[in-house]
Design brief:
The complex is a heterodimer of chains A (83) and B (606).
Chain A lengths: L1 E6 L15 E5 L6 H7 L9 E4 L2 E2 L15 E5 L6
Parallel strand pairs in A: 1-5
Antiparallel strand pairs in A: 1-2, 3-4, 3-5
Chain B lengths: L5 E6 L4 E6 L2 H7 L2 H12 L13 E5 L13 E6 L6 E6 L3 H7 L4 E5 L6 E6 L2 E6 L8 H11 L6 E4 L2 H4 L7 E3 L3 E3 L4 H7 L2 E7 L9 H17 L1 H9 L4 H8 L20 H5 L9 E5 L9 E4 L18 E2 L3 H7 L8 H14 L3 H16 L18 H13 L4 H4 L3 H7 L8 E2 L2 E2 L9 H9 L12 H6 L7 H14 L14 H11 L6 H21 L11 H4 L15 H12 L9 H6 L3
Helix pairs in contact in B: 1-2, 2-21, 7-20, 11-13, 12-14, 13-16, 17-19, 19-21, 19-23
Classes of the chains: A mainly beta (83), B alpha+beta (606).
């Protein structure tokens, strides 16, 4: 299945080389969870992230359970404070 | 030590200056900068005084860490009664001016009265003069700074000044120092203008002494390392604060078209990537980043406008490097007015710096005017022929300049959103609190932010508390009162030191307390440091209570309380302020009317 991933801040550095800016369309195995996606991208594990799937906030405790689906839009953001 | 132990007091009415000892008992209670200036303001003026009258007091305050080796130690605050709100105003700024004022030997500069003619204050260590500013009156911030450096033949002079906006009483005029850093909010520049004071030019050579140099250097080394290692700080350095715009877009907390929407389709055209990506003609908006005095973060952006852009064609004076987009300017010239032309946004930013205006208040005021225009309440006949529609870059740039110069419809925009909306019979379109416009966070998506906005002592403000982490974990109002209160106190303490709020991603209060403890007389454990913050917050509140504010003013517009967010992660939600506020008052030890109880005042020594 294909999902669109958009990253905030400097997390685009973890997207594959074929990314366009801070976006990439990824081919994932069926049933991939947001947590598995983050591990696949090799995001630092000690970080806290804001994860949104299709305009829906995915709390940390649900990231290993929720299954992504074809066409999902996943947004992964680092912890930022306001300016 | 760390304090200079001196105050420079200037009576503009009589044209006199004198130096007096800093009240060290107050310094031990309120630390410096925001806190100490609040104490002096409280003792010196009637909170009911006209903010634009001679009885208002204007204080430039450094902190004990200002000018030291601590990272980001260039901060100073301007504290006064704000004309935009009628509440206490505390606007702080970076750049180099604050450190220079401290090097000249002063913790606080207190300005009273009103000069009989346009004047500026020249400070060169012990040499203090009130000088005529007749030929500077009516000119820009940028012209004033350059002229004063040339006149005194010293390029090292640091200048804090106002533009025409401040002279003419734009309610959100700011004080600009070092060309593009500003004490931006609440109209502190208008107070300066009301005193016929164009500028303060400072030069200092005295340095700053700390209590325990060896321990201070060790603590500074450790805290510098914390900043260098912090991922959030690296985001600030590499991308600037505008990194937030993509996050708020996806979160659905990005106020758009005067808060009618919470996501903006044009965000990709104004975000950090857009700033760094060459256009087809090869022009790239961003040139580099920039640090303030002593700063190891360097979040500032230096940008330039495409020479082919309509704003600068035949205006070569604006084809140069200057302050670029930060998150709040990107929001205030972008989503909230519906404009996605990055060069137009950058030009509007130049106008704010050149003429001395708060971009947040300007942008949100323009957004309200655009909504009224689209409703047919404001007509083209009033707007000098400009189509004041959402999304029109010309409306943004022309009105930014007109407001700065106080020409045409710019005079109406200079009223601020609250007064403008009342003038046209639609007060419900004002998006702010206590007369001050919202920053770029929607309270329906960020519940703790809404509580912080509602209770901020200077009117709607995103910089006086920090509930970002809690707001992004849970989108209800539950459990937001405690972190809001705690972070307000911690921020008030931080703002009283002389360092920048943007250290807070890497430093907790314990790191600040250790620096203060090594630098300043007295013992400063974390508990005392935080209690100082609570004392500062409560005294600010008492100033507002005396000025007539109460629980009725701790509220949000109906658009946020009753109209559900139309999209994003908070779709369908409204602000839950009604649930958060009573809990907040209880935690603060305030009455149901929002007044600090006698017990609370006694506990804090107030």
């Amino acid at each position: 299945m294909r999902v669109t991933v958009k990253t905030g801040g400097l997390l685009y550095e973890y997207l594959p080389p074929e990314r366009t800016g801070n976006r990439a369309t990824l081919e994932l195995a069926e049933g991939t969870t947001p947590l598995a996606l983050m591990q696949q991208l090799r995001l630092p594990q000690d970080g806290t992230y804001l994860v949104i799937v299709n305009d829906e906030l995915v709390p940390e405790e649900q990231r290993g359970e929720r299954r992504l689906a074809e066409g999902d839009r996943v947004s992964i953001n680092p912890p930022l404070k306001g300016g | 030590m760390s304090w200079q132990r001196k105050i420079l007091r200037v009576d503009l009415t009589n044209g006199t200056t004198h130096v007096e000892p800093l009240n060290m008992e107050w310094a031990q209670q309120f630390l410096g900068e925001r806190g100490l200036a609040t104490k002096y303001l409280w003792e010196m003026m009637d909170p009911n005084a006209d903010p634009m009258g001679p009885d208002n007091v204007l204080i430039f305050a450094t902190g004990p860490l200002t000018g030291t080796m601590a990272s980001t130690s260039g901060r100073y605050a301007v504290v006064t009664k704000g004309p935009l709100t009628g509440a206490i105003a505390c606007s702080n700024s970076g750049g180099k001016f604050g450190a220079e004022l401290k090097f000249a030997g002063y913790d606080l500069l207190i300005l009273q009265g009103k000069a009989p003619e346009p004047s500026y204050l020249y400070i060169n260590d012990d040499d203090v003069q009130i000088l005529p500013a007749g030929e500077l009156w009516g000119t820009t911030v940028w012209h004033t700074e350059e002229t004063l450096k040339q006149r005194h033949r010293d390029p090292q002079i640091k200048v804090a000044s106002i533009g025409v906006a401040g002279e003419r009483g734009v309610y959100y005029a700011c004080v600009v120092n070092d060309l593009h850093r500003a004490a931006g909010r609440s109209g502190v520049g208008a107070v300066m203008g009301s005193k016929n004071l164009k500028a303060v030019a400072a030069r200092g050579t005295k340095g700053v002494r700390v209590k325990d140099p060896k321990r201070f250097m060790q603590v500074v080394k450790e805290t510098h390392a914390l900043l260098a290692e912090n991922a959030g700080v690296r985001e600030m350095t590499e991308l600037g604060t505008n990194a937030m715009i993509d996050v708020m877009q996806d979160f659905g907390g990005l106020p758009t078209r005067n808060f009618n929407e919470v996501q903006f389709a044009g965000v990709d055209k104004i975000d950090p990537a857009a700033m760094m990506t060459p256009k087809p003609n090869g022009h790239t908006n961003l040139i580099t980043n920039k640090a303030c005095f002593g700063c190891t973060i360097a979040c500032g952006r230096i940008a330039h406008i495409d020479p082919e852009h309509f704003t600068v064609v035949n205006r070569k004076e604006y084809i140069h490097a200057s302050g670029g987009l930060e998150y709040e300017t990107a929001y205030a010239f972008g989503p909230v007015v519906g404009v996605d032309d990055i060069d137009a946004l950058t030009f509007a930013g130049f106008m704010m710096n050149e003429h001395g205006m708060d971009p947040i208040s300007f942008g949100v005021t323009l957004a309200a005017a655009m909504e009224l225009y689209e409703m047919g309440v404001i007509t083209k006949a009033e707007t000098d022929g400009i189509e004041l529609k959402f999304g029109n870059p010309e409306a943004l740039t022309v009105m930014a300049e007109k407001t700065g110069k106080q020409e045409g419809f710019g005079q109406v925009l200079g009223l601020g959103s609250k007064r403008l909306c009342e003038k046209y019979g639609h007060p419900e379109l004002f998006m702010g609190v206590k007369g001050q416009e919202f920053a770029g966070y929607d309270s329906r998506a960020l519940q703790g932010m809404g509580l912080g906005y509602a209770t901020s002592n200077r009117g709607a403000c995103h910089l006086k508390h920090d509930t970002f982490a809690e707001d992004m974990e849970d989108q209800t109002g539950k459990g937001k009162a405690q972190p809001c209160k705690d972070s307000q106190d911690a921020t008030a303490a931080l703002d009283s030191t002389g360092v920048c709020l943007f250290t807070a991603g890497a430093w907790g209060s314990e790191h600040l307390a250790r620096q203060v403890d090594a630098a300043c007389e007295g013992e400063w454990p974390t508990e005392r440091f935080l209690e100082t913050g609570e004392r500062v917050w409560t005294l600010e509140r008492m100033f507002n209570v005396r000025a007539g504010f109460s629980a009725k003013d701790d509220t949000l517009p109906e658009r946020l309380l009753k109209v559900p967010a139309p999209s994003g992660t908070a779709k369908g939600r409204v602000s839950e302020l009604d649930k958060m506020l009573p809990e907040y008052y209880t935690l603060r030890g305030w009455t149901r009317d929002g007044v600090p109880s006698e017990q609370t005042l006694h506990r804090l020594g107030l």
